[in-house]
Write a structure and sequence with these properties.
One of its GO terms (molecular function) is DNA-binding transcription factor activity, RNA polymerase II-specific. One of its GO terms (biological process) is positive regulation of transcription by RNA polymerase II. Its main location: nucleus. It holds the Pfam family SRF-TF. It comes from Populus trichocarpa. The chain has about 250 residues and is mainly alpha-helical. Among the domains are: about 10-60, SRF-like, CATH 3.40.1810; about 65-120. It contains 6 helices and 2 strands, in the order αββααααα. The chain has helices spanning about 15-40, 65-110, 120-185, 190, 195-200, 225-245; strands at about 45-50, 55-60. A two-stranded antiparallel sheet has the order 1-2. The longest helix has about 60 residues, at about 120-185.
């Protein structure tokens, strides 16, 4: 018949309790030794009986070193927990501070818009009015500065456009002047090519009228007497030569 499962509760019989303590203590010390050897672990075991008697086990008899290590570790753990608690408290304070600041800014913004003014005193309203006047002065100064910069930039562009326009007008006038000079024919080349002009007049058939010489480059008739006399003097030697040749 196998062993049944032992119910974990305090043994009321003192003799049975003492026997069970002795057996379990021996097994516990044996297990501590096994785990230290098999796993190369530092083990410290402290047991006090119900009468206050001490039973202990430590790896390589280094109970003090293990206890000091335990103290350092537990102290670091306590400090970490305390730091976390302090940090949590600091974050709570920071959250409350920022929340109050946001609420104040929102209330000031509503006051600047002319809202929620009923709860403000006369002095607070005067301070608010002074702040708004100061802000308006800064805004107007900034606006005037930007307008002055814009006007200066437009004036500079206007001067540049005016200079460019004057240059274009000058170029147009020079081009028109050159076009007029090229459009007028040079009829005074007859004086430089006299023999050619005489040959042209002598080659005309008899009885045909002589071509009209338009000295001015215009197709209108020249009525002044001075122009007819000048033309007669110019053609007189040519006609004399022509008639003399026929008489010979």
């Amino acid at each position: 018949m196998g062993r049944g499962r032992v119910q974990l509760k305090r043994i009321e019989n003192k003799i049975n309790r003492q026997v069970t303590f002795s057996k379990r203590r021996t097994g516990l010390l044996k297990k501590a030794n096994e785990i230290s050897v098999l796993c190369d672990a530092e083990v410290a075991l402290i047991v006090f009986s119900h009468k206050g008697k001490l039973f202990e086990y430590s790896t390589d008899d280094s109970m003090e070193k293990i206890l000091e290590r335990y103290e350092r570790y537990s102290y670091a753990e306590r400090q970490l927990v305390a730091t976390d608690l302090d940090s949590q408290g600091n974050w709570t304070l920071e959250y409350n501070r920022l929340k109050a600041k946001v609420e104040l800014l929102q209330r000031n913004h509503r006051n600047y818009l002319g809202e929620d003014l009923d709860s403000m005193s006369l002095k607070e309203l005067q301070n608010l009015e002074q702040q708004i006047d100061t802000a308006l002065k800064h805004i107007r100064a900034r606006k005037n500065h930007l307008m002055s910069q814009s006007i200066s930039e437009l004036q500079r562009k206007e001067k540049a456009i005016q200079v460019q326009n004057n240059m274009l007008v000058k170029q147009i006038k020079e081009k028109e002047k050159n076009d007029k000079a090229l459009a007028q024919p040079a009829f005074w080349d007859l004086q430089d090519h006299g023999p050619n002009a005489s040959s042209f007049l002598l080659s005309q058939p008899a009885g045909l009228p002589l071509p009209c010489l338009n000295i001015g480059g215009s197709h209108q008739e020249e009525a002044p007497e001075a122009r007819r006399n000048e033309l007669g003097h110019t053609l007189e030697p040519i006609y004399s030569f022509h008639l003399g040749g026929y008489g010979a």
